[in-house]
Amino acid sequence: MDRPALPAPDLVSTAQAREPAQAPEPALAPEPAQAPRPALAPEPAPAREPAPAPEPAQAPRPAPTRELAPAPATGNEPPPGRPTDIERRVRALWAAEFGLDPDGLAADASFFDLGGHSITAMRLVNQVREKFGTEYPMLSFYQEPTLRAMTAHLTEAVGATTPDAAPAPGDDLPGTVERRAPATLQQARFATVHAGHRRPQVFNVALRLTLTGTLDVPALRTALTRLVERHEGLRTRLTPAGDGWEQQVLRPGPVDLPLEDLTARPADERRAALDRVSAEVTETPVDPTRGTPMALRLLRTADDTWVLLLVLHHSACDGWSVSLLLRELAALYGSARQGVPDTLPDVECQPAAYAHWQQEQADEADEDRKVRFWLRALDGVPFTVGLPLDRPRPDSPSGRGGAVPFTVPADVRAAVERLARQRGTTPFVVTAAALGRLLARTSGQDDVVFNISYANRERRAFESLLACTITGFALPVRDGAAGSFTALTDRVARTAVECMDHALPVRRIAPALRDHTGVEVPDRLDVGFAYQSSLDAEVELPGLTTAVEDLAPAAARTELTFGLVPAGDELRGFVEYSSDLWDRATIEGWTHAYVDLLREETGRALDD
Questions:
Q1: Per-residue DSSP letters for 267-299?
Q2: Global confidence as pTM
Q3: Cα distance between residue 35 and residue 431, in whole Å
Q4: For residue 242, which phi and psi values (nearest 5 degrees)?
Q5: Which ranges in the chain are annotated with CATH 3.30.559.30?
Q6: Of the ranges 103-117, 411-425, 485-499, which one carries the lowest mean pLDDT score?
């Protein structure tokens, strides 16, 4: 989660309607407590794209099915001969898979005798998990691949209802629970830290869209409603379940878009009112455990000027998702304005399916392998960066903070990109190496380590997923204070690729590091870095000139986070900082030092 996923509030960009970058590079960190501020995706892309998740191998054909013993009575069985609601829903899924009439399916017919195979079996089981909100082990399906067995399993897991019984009054209304699923790792982490943070508004990702021209308000409301219908993450509530969290996907309904007309007020009062409402929206925590993770407000500030305030909780988005949301909002508005159906492709993956995929990928042996790597990679590296403070560190952080914007000029950005090409790496690596050098020199440490986050969208289906998928890793920079910047860049490039291949949040490796080193290891790092190359905050709504700003609350998730966002020919930068520790003037001085260092070191390296 990195500070502005957009350029800082005063850096407004007029939409140019260009296609956003598609490469899924490193993005915001999954540990909100330490991640860079906004959910807008930071993405360093060390050298290569993650390999797609392999398709499952063809499973051996299961043995002929055996007769299924009657399911034990649960006390809620329907009268004999009447199919349950669960059976009818299961029949519908099977029939859709094979193109058959649901009533023509025999209860004991084998899925594989009907023409199923391992890939279609996985597809069916994934649909069952999504539709019924419960686990269905693939092994159980292979052992009993019949409609009867699946119905019995689901009846025991979620309970049966009689087929023709009408739902209880209000059960199918908008805002009621449509289905349940396990929370994603990112959702669970955010829900936990949100509850314990003194200033939970730090997890708000707040955008202000200034729309100039003739706005069709009903079309905008229709577009937002359709957006929420398409993306379940925008209508999901997080609730405790056992010792963890679950998603409750709520049924969609018309989006509430409060409208306030300021045009009757004098111009100076209008501006003051806009600033007041913007601050109010930004500083009001969006709580994903009490409702859905999105808040909206529309203001009219002139006859032809409107401001849409849109706030998302970071648990529901990252930089990739913000770009997706803005792009789809523009397309849906255009369709609604013309009164024609939209032509957007179906969403291939929803957060519930992503959570199940995460569970399927869990591998204890692989995690042990990664932990062993980190024991070697972080051996001897101090886990804190001893930057000089303006005041003593408090016993308990207040959560208060600020953000300082800065700009890397076009000539310096060009030098960064030339050096990256020359060394066979990416601009992320060059800018991270420069940050490592700045931190080493400022702290007086030879070795430093800071948190990196990346997009973590390994499969093509995840490209349409509106959710927070980021994960993070520690990036150690050794001997950063002196020596050749070219050599430092090469070392950081190698290290970044290795660390990405073994990515684990620090809190997951801290216990092993404590046991190995015998010293206290924090669960999070002091400093973070985000290079948000996949973020595209430009949007063009038909008939309107659109400007997008990021509105940052006066809060900090971690002590210090540096971020860079490509914008035109420049890099727009930000530093989110804890005001418990530093004054704004100190941070401004460090931003100037960083840009100067980047200019000097890339220039010297290119001249060598």
A1: HHHHHHHHHHHHHHHHHS---TTTS-SEEEEEE
A2: 0.72
A3: 18
A4: 60, -125
A5: 365-390+401-535+553-607
A6: 103-117
The rounded distance, in Å, linking the Cα atoms of 73 and 160 is 11
* Burial 366-400, CB ≥16 within 10 A → b, else e: eeeebbeebeebbeeeebebebeeeeeeeeebebe
Q: Does domain 177-349 sit in CATH 3.30.559.10?
A: yes
> What Å distances lie between residue 25 and 44, 285, 399, CA to CA?
6, 29, 29
Q: Dig out the tokens for 154 from the structure.
A: 């689901």
CATH class, range 365-390+401-535+553-607: alpha beta
Give me the DSSP letters along 172-215: TSTTSEEEEEEPPHHHHHHHHHHHH-S-GGGGEEEEEEEEEE--
Burial state string for 59-71 with b = 16 or more CB within 10 A and e = fewer than 16: eeebeebeeeeee
Q: Write down the residue that tokens 């700045």 correspond to.
A: 438
Sheet with strand 401-408: strands edge to edge: 401-408, 570-578, 560-567, 527-531, 448-454, 471-477
Q: What is the DSSP letter of 462?
A: G
Q: What is the pLDDT of residues 328-341, one digit of tens each?
A: 999 999 999 999 99
Residue 530 forms beta bridges with which residues?
A: 563
pLDDT of residue 79: 43
Closest of 531, 511, 431, 458 to residue 52, by C-alpha: 458
- 85-158 falls under which CATH superfamily? ACP-like (1.10.1200.10)
Q: Which of these, 443, 309, 445, 321, lies nearest to 389 by C-alpha position? A: 443
Q: Where does CATH 3.30.559.10 sit in the chain?
A: 177-349
What confidence tens digit (pLDDT) does each residue in 352-402 have? 999 999 999 888 888 899 999 999 999 999 989 999 999 999 999 999 999
Residues 200, 474, 453, 504, Cα dihedral to 10° = -90
CA atoms of 470 and 580, how far apart (whole Å)? 27
- Residue 416's nearest CA partner among 276, 563, 196, 569 is 569
Check: CB of residue 557 under 8 Å from CB of residue 576.
yes
The residue whose two tokens read 């034990």 is 72
The span from the CA of 542 to the CA of 520, in Å, is 56
Nearest by Cα to 320 from 579, 516, 123, 27:
27
Task: Return the half-sphere exposure (C-beta side, CA atoms, 13 A cut-off) of residue 394.
Answer: 11
What is the spatial distance between Cα 568 and Cα 51, in angstroms, rounded to a whole number?
Answer: 30
The answer, yes or no, to whether residue 251 has pLDDT greater than 70, is: yes
CA 261 to chain CA centroid, nearest Å: 33
Among 504, 128, 176, residue whose Cα is nearest residue 353? 128
Tokens 């900082």 locate to 577
Query: Cα separation of 136 and 150, whole Å?
Result: 9
Radius of gyration of the chain measured on its C-alpha atoms: 26
Q: Which residue(s) pair with 210 in the sheet?
A: 307, 547
Tell me where in the chain the CATH 1.10.1200.10 domain(s) lie.
85-158
Q: In what order do the strands lie in the sheet with 236-241?
A: 177-182, 244-250, 236-241
Tokens of 506: 């620090």
Quick one: tokens of 312? 């998302």
Q: Of all residues in the chain, what percent carry a pLDDT higher than 90?
A: 58
DSSP state letter for 441? H
Kind and range of the H or E run holding 498: helix 485-501
The CA-based diameter of the chain, rounded to the nearest angstrom, is: 85
